């Protein structure tokens, strides 16, 4: 399983527009091949900080989604309406009861 996250710190004046742009993209991305989970979460302390969290069956499923039109719109919204963002991707491998997580 691949876990991808993106922390987005939005501009307060663009918060409503950012959420209006992101919400309709969630369902198509969630329906993408290999997507196990995809959602946006708001920070409990700072309502202008968001976490995009995705779980994917494989690297190729994540990469295919990243090249989709929906993901291009998502990336555009982050670039235009966000003040800053950072991405993290991890591969989660499970061997019985032992798990291994490595940053990529």
Report a brief summary of the structure:
By secondary structure, this protein is of the alpha+beta class. The chain has one domain (2-103): Alpha-Beta Plaits (2-Layer Sandwich), CATH 3.30.70. It has three helices and five strands, in the order βαββααββ.
Walkthrough of the structure:
This protein is of the alpha+beta class. The chain has one domain: 2-Layer Sandwich (Alpha-Beta Plaits). The chain is 36% helix and 43% strand. It is built from three helices and five strands, in the order βαββααββ. It has a five-stranded antiparallel beta sheet with strand order 2-3-1-4-5. Strand 4 (82-95) and strand 5 (98-103) form a beta hairpin. The two termini are 13 Å apart.
Topology of this protein?
Layout: E1 2-10, H1 15-30, E2 35-42, E3 49-56, H2 59-66, H3 69-81, E4 82-95, E5 98-103
Antiparallel strand pairs: 1-3, 1-4, 2-3, 4-5
- Domain module tally: 1
The rounded Rg comes to 14 Å
- Which sheet architecture does the biggest sheet show? 5 strands, antiparallel
Spell out the helices and strands N to C.
Answer: EHEEHHEE
Q: Please report the first level of CATH classification, the CATH class.
A: Alpha Beta
Give descriptors for this structure.
104 residues; alpha+beta; Alpha-Beta Plaits; five-stranded antiparallel β-sheet; 3 helices; 43% strand; disordered C terminus
């Amino acid at each position: 399983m691949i876990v991808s996250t993106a922390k987005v710190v939005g501009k307060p004046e663009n918060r409503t527009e950012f959420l209006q742009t992101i919400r309709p993209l969630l369902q198509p991305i969630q329906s993408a091949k290999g997507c196990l989970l995809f959602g946006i979460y708001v920070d409990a302390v700072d309502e202008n900080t968001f976490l995009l969290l995705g779980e994917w069956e494989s690297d190729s499923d994540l990469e295919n989604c990243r090249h989709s039109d929906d993901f291009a719109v998502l990336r555009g919204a982050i670039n235009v309406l966000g003040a800053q963002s950072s991405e993290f991707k991890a591969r989660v491998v499970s061997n019985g009861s032992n798990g291994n997580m490595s940053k990529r």
